[in-house]
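quick one before i forget lol
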Amino acid sequence: MARPNPSIFDLAYEGNATAVMKLITEDETFKTQIDSNGRMLLHWAALGGHHELVQFLLSLGAPVDPQDDTNMTPLILAASAGREKVVTILITEGANVNAQTIDGHSALQYAASKNWHSICLKLIEKGADINITDNRGATPLHRAASKGNVEIVKMLLAHGNRLKIDKTDAYGNSALHLACEEDRNTEAKLLVSHGASLELTNREKKTPLDLCTPALARQLKALKEKPE
């Protein structure tokens, strides 16, 4: 079966810059038109990682932070997809690094969850809130610790007192609770060695130790008792 003619949004996602540029030259209103998801061409070019097309659209005056029907911005999409060059361009052009979707997810939260270390670093350098919370109260540290993204955890911990290490989500869980529950041994030890509480109770009255394997619980207690 022959493929139907792709829309201009399809072309932007696929990175067919020549075709997109030609259509916009013929009708410049394309640069701000939206599709059925409320997305502009910039959303799709950013998600596809097509940095030259992103730069072209911005040079024509396309808005840098348009929101789709879930409040996703091009920066959030690019960060989630690991499109570092696009992230750099969007930040340089003034994109809001702390924009959030209707669920409260930010670019940093997605990047922390998906283990995009260099993107996390770039976002933080440009002012991303390391303690930003989604609608369920989860922070980038919650995301990284539960997923086992150890390098992201280390990077966040390097911010010392700026990082709210014991911040709890809507269920009363700290990042340490989640690391223990998912048996993320390395992450749990890092958190404890940086001062995370072993006594904090969640809404079910459970401490991180209650969620650990016996072996990990012993190791975490030994770390806490270790002299400074």
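fyi The mean pLDDT is 95.
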